[in-house]
Amino acid sequence: MSNVDLLGRRKFITGLGIAGAAAATPFAMPALASSVSAEGVKWDKTIDIAIIGSGFAGLAAGIEAKRQGAKDVTIFEKMPVFGGNSAINGGLFAAPGTPMQQEKGVTDSVETMVADQMKSGRGIADEGLLRHVAEHAMEALQMTLDAGSVYHPYLQQLGGHSVPRTYQTTVSCGAGITQPLLKQCRKEGVETENRVKFAGFVLDKTGKVEGVKLIKGYYFGEEDSGKPYYVRTNRGVIMATGGFAQNVNLRMAQDPTLTAEVGCTNAKGATGEGMFEMFRLGAVPVHMAHIQSGPWASPDEGGFGYVSNYSIFNFPHSIAINRMTGQRFMNEIADRKTRADAELNCRDGNGDPLPPIMITSWEHAKQHPNAKKVLKYGVGWKFDTLEELAKHFDVPVKALKQQIEEYNGYVKAGVDKQFGKNMGKAKGKYIEAPYGVVRLWPKVHYCQGGVQITKKAEVLDSFSGAPIQGLYAAGEVTGGVHGISRLGSCSIPECMVMGMTAARSIMGA
Amino acid sequence: MGVKDGRSFHEMNYESGCDSCHDNGIRVRPSDDACEACHDVDDLAEATTREGEEALQNPHDNLHYGKETPCTECHGEHEAKAPLCSECHTFKFDAHKR
Ligand SMILES: Cc1cc2nc3c(=O)[nH]c(=O)nc-3n(C[C@H](O)[C@H](O)[C@H](O)COP(=O)(O)OP(=O)(O)OC[C@H]3O[C@@H](n4cnc5c(N)ncnc54)[C@H](O)[C@@H]3O)c2cc1C
Known about the structure:
Chain B: Its cofactor is heme c. Chain B: Keywords: Electron transport, Heme, Iron, Metal-binding, Transport. Chain B: Residues 14-90 form the Tetrahaem cytochrome domain. Chain B: It is found in: Periplasm. Chain B: One of its GO terms (molecular function) is metal ion binding. The complex is a heterodimer of chains A (509) and B (98). Chain A has 15 helices and 21 strands. The radius of gyration of chain A is 24 Å and the shape is globular. Chain A has helices at residues 2-28, 56-67, 99-104, 110-120, 127-147, 175-187, 248-254, 273-281, 307-314, 336-344, 362-365, 371-376, 386-393, 397-413, 491-506; strands at residues 36-37, 45-52, 73-76, 92-94, 166-168, 191-193, 196-203, 209-216, 227-239, 263-264, 285-286, 291-294, 319-322, 327-328, 357-361, 381-383, 435-439, 443-447, 450-451, 458-460, 467-473. Chain A has 2 domains: 45-245 and 445-508, FAD/NAD(P)-binding domain; 296-441, Flavocytochrome C3, Chain A, domain 1 (Alpha-Beta Complex), CATH 3.90.700. The longest helix of chain A has 27 residues, at 2-28. By secondary structure, chain A is of the alpha/beta class. The relative contact order of chain B is 0.14. Chain B is largely without helices or strands. The longest helix of chain B is centred in the middle third of the chain and has 7 residues, at 41-47. Chain B has helices at 11-15, 41-47. Chain B starts with 10 loop residues before the first helix and ends in a 51-residue tail after the last helix. Flavin-adenine dinucleotide binds at residues 52-58, 76-79, 84-86, 88-92, 174, 197-198, 240-242, 265-266, 269-270, 273-274, 303-304, 446, 475-477, 489-492, 495 of chain A.
């Protein structure tokens, strides 16, 4: 069985390699990428609106721009495939006042949703933007339904939400939205081009964004690939380039704990150079250091994988164990940051990462739809005895046994004397054989920071405080909307609504 | 570059010259639809159909990108490549030809 562990270990290291490579990219670039004056630029093409990035924000912007009467609209995507983080996300979509809430008798409102988000934003979220998004979230949901997205017939109530208001696509993935929206874009006449990288803005004499410099035929990671291509925009540019969680240097500049050792759930293209260019132009950076890591991820698979949802479900009735000591080391349902930091402290004698393990009674673990999958795809394990488990993960078995006995006492008493975990959801759920086990390691997940925008998706200039003419931004590339911590399922509505808003602003609607 | 080291069943392409695939010029990569001159994506998708809970893991017609993943993201004629899926998943693709 030890080869399984080796496999995990090897993958883990490979994962770091990918992150490391991505980190090197943006620093090779700035010399190439920067804004230029339109004087002397030979335009290759003139269109109405250039949209940079093909996630929720870019796709919604494209459809709405067409519906508002824009003629030539093109979405430029630097990667070989369309969809960015949106195409790999969990497909969870929050909106207030939906038909399903009515059907199920759930009372909700824009105000309630904003209040929930303000609370988790810890006082520094942007109330005006949150309200604008909540007010239009139903329109965005409708856009996906019209395009053919299909949702589970039930609502979910995610952490921090005071009522059930979250739809989820039947495929439990954002691709259940990006694929229909991409098709809809094309149906309505939006052009979509892959392997085209945004490299800078082209400005007229007054400083207005007149177009963009692109690199056509770009191969991700090969910074000298492709050829410059200048596109003039009659109406404007919408930046929908997403977050920067894959850019290790940039994220470490904000939060030095987010080294290459910390994994990442994001698509590889989330490197942030589009945001950088807006800063160069004068955009206001907001909340750059608020970067969220997911403590529910596994080093045995890439990205979000199958384990994340499995462990989110199981944490309340599981124990997380440091393999050096055989002891618990955190409250398994503390906030995301507390847990991510605690996991990062789990190390072997040389100080190298030693991903901790989560142990669950298989009886409870198997209630989650991914339980079978984590076993099938070799990212989770099932053991009949504690001895086998301890041997497999090289955990001191005596200490582990003692820890489990102690913890089961807390389950019985309803009080966790070790870490103060709320034992409400662990009631009656003792840790007993057979055991389900996954390895844990935090992954950088979401960037709350980015460029400051208005409720019209205009990008503000840090000197004048006025909107930069011809420039709009939407989605994860913008900052400050959610404050310190974004609630789950609130990014899809934000990205889509602000993408639609950008299109409306450009078209004067 | 210039090294053949390709698939034996592409022999005829090598015989008719590099530009039979390299439609953008010899020193640069072929366009994303170059392979489609000979290979039909619908046929490929049918050939790699998966059943039940694996239905959306069809590499030629999958959950995230449908039938649009450029061939060269998973296959390399002159270099070995892993399936794109393996960046996040541990699915088995036993019949994958580099
Ligand atoms: C694994 C995972 C699960 C998630 N689950 C959920 C969930 O269930 N619900 C929820 O609300 N949120 C979720 N989130 C968050 C949410 O998915 C993202 O915040 C959202 O997808 C961002 O959308 P976007 O349109 O702003 O950017 P993206 O979807 O990332 O799109 C940006 C695109 O721009 C491209 N790009 C970047 N730079 C350039 C450039 N220079 N030139 C050209 N193109 C460029 C990128 O390649 C990318 O395709 C999840 C995130 C992840 C990573």
